[in-house]
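Blinded run. Sample ID left blank on purpose so nobody reads anything into the name before looking at the predicted structure. Input follows.
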Amino acid sequence: MAGEIPPDKWKHFIVGIPMGAILQVVCNWMTENPLQATIITFVIVVAISYGFELFSKITRLGRYDFLDAVASVIGGVLGMGLVWLF
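Blinded prediction complete.
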């Protein structure tokens, strides 16, 4: 069906949520500047998400899909936002 999100994208999204939340907590703990902590967290989330896809492409141990990285980053940003709410 058009517009339906594939299950593997949901998996990447769900995995991204705790990744972003945990990294946000760690970065908040490591720096007193909340904006700096958020920027650092975002950069790390993007690096991990895309890095995993690059690893899959280079080693051929998995299937490279840029949209998997995008789904992970979106989940990571949601996780970061949840930390901000609490």
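Unblinding after everyone has recorded impressions. The chain has one domain: 15-85.
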